Amino acid sequence: MAAIDPSKVRRYAHGSRVPGWDDAVDLSKAPAEVPDPATTPVPAELRAEIEQYMSRYPDFRSAAIPALHAAQRLHGWCSPTAVEQVACVMRLTPGYLTAVATFYDMFETVPKGRVDVYVCTNISCSLRGADRIHAAMQAAAGNDPEFHVKSFECLGACDIAPMASIDGEYVGPLTEADCRQIVEDVKAGRPVLESKQLRKRKTAGGT
Amino acid sequence: MQLLFDDIDQPGLNTLRVYQGERGGYEMLSRALDMEPADVLSQLQASGLRGRGGAGFAMGVKASFLPKGDMDKYVVCNADESEPGTFKDRELMQKNPHLLIEGLAIAAHAVGANKAFIFIRGEYDYVATILEEALEEAKAANLLGSLELWVHRGAGAYICGEETALLDALEGKRGNPRLKPPFPAVQGLYKGPTLINNVETLMNAPIILRMGGEEYAKIGVERSTGTKVVSVSGCVENPGNFEIVLGTPTREIIYDLAGGPLGGKKIKCFFPGGSSAPVLPGTDEYLDLPYDFDSMAKAGSMLGSGAIIVADEDVSIVDLALKTAKFYRHESCGKCTPCREGTNWTVKMLERIDSGEATPMDLDIMASVCDQIMGNCLCVLGDAMAMPIASMIKWFREEFEEHIEAARERNGLGAANPQFNADEAAGPMPALT
Predict the structure, then answer these.
(1) How far apart are CA B416 and CA B357, in angstroms?
(2) Nearest-CB residue to B123 (from A57, A155, A202)
(3) Cβ contact (<8 Å) for B154 and A123?
(4) pTM of the predicted model, to two decimals?
(5) In this prediction, does ipTM exceed 0.90?
């Protein structure tokens, strides 16, 4: 076997050949406690929404995911402030909520663009060219801070493969040209790709 | 025969006006509320209805496991449809949300539960809104009696479709599966007895009551009764949801309903029940199988969630395996070592095959990794990767080997060595010292 040419070894920014692990915990810091309501301002609307969720369940902790959804909608991402506000209303530690937020794909613990563009790149969509669509979507919106383009696992719409979800609106089957249209529609504030919206589609096997 | 898809595109079916006013909806719920819970249960049992979410466990039997008596019991509808290739629940909930609410209320009456949740995946945001609107209507019309029902949105995790992980997520935790037993029917949500059923399963409850359990059991074949909504996707002309009577030949579903493979190509293989099901080759022997629970199991695969993904002859089996394995690596919750590490190593080995660093022996290592995942974890997510990957190696080993050799050639590494030792192959395996 040929010797390894050091100039051809690809490395990550920190010099290693592996991408690295999640952000390490600062062990010198004491764990954050349940925030003090007196020093943690929470927008009244967010507080009301979270309290409404908490009242639905026999155990208030069940409201963690809906509450994080609400905080992410308000703050744009699950920022430390957002998590702290949820923790304050729910009387939980920020650590508990961060553990929940990092588990689920729809919560972002780093800043993201306002418009979520999930491009499905799972089996059925990739059999119909999803990787090409993802690349086209990246080219059309990847550098725009307004958009958050993410390749996603099966979104449950393989009948319109290849497809994407634009802020929850399912559209497909997509072509590369559609990706540019999506960006234009979002910027103009129009309904996204109206002719290809899934909710308007008839059932294939319907009578 | 169309039971669930009966005029599914009727305008306004998602409103109470059409569902109750024109279609006689919620009649079965009021009939059920007048019946003894045990009688409702026996109707469900008589129907032979098997769970439509993936495991195929008899719904009536599952419901009968819940203890009787006065205590907090729960019904949870599993609408976290995330199995790749599956999109039936989305269509059913979007177009006929009241049928689910009615079915859920009937099931709750049958097991004596007074609180129920619909756990819907967070990505189905617009479907969840449709459900919430329907629920508001039903509550305003006072149709649900004493049942308290809420729609709960998840936040994107395949594992939450596993029933105990779903319960953890619903309790506001990370979605990690629990050790079973105790099964949810004994100790589930908030440690109370809990019935968890898939959307399509619950939607069948009003239909069963209307027809009568024994009459329903006459549809389909023995041990696979009723109709099934099948999601066909991948390389087919007309992908979509089709309602079939269980036992319909697979060929009829793929060719007649879904229009056959794209451009008249040959089918290389298909997943008969979502990406977790072992693939079957597209030969006459397998295409002629009746599509029902037992026939699929006998052929070495499973009906799963009823999602057929078709791959045609142009699809590279290595690409297909890599896509499949990457999905499970991403979705493994990380709780059990065989699944967390096994999915990761399978992806690494498949990437090596693709980049030309592998030898044909790696296929056996991969198969043995799959073997060691199976049955060794709290839930079946790892198994769900191991089964299709192992089946791809089983059916398409030669193509994997050709791919390995071609990639090695490209990489300038030459043929893998040793390839085959005729003396050893003829005799017994050499003993390990």
Answers:
(1) 10
(2) A155
(3) no
(4) 0.93
(5) yes
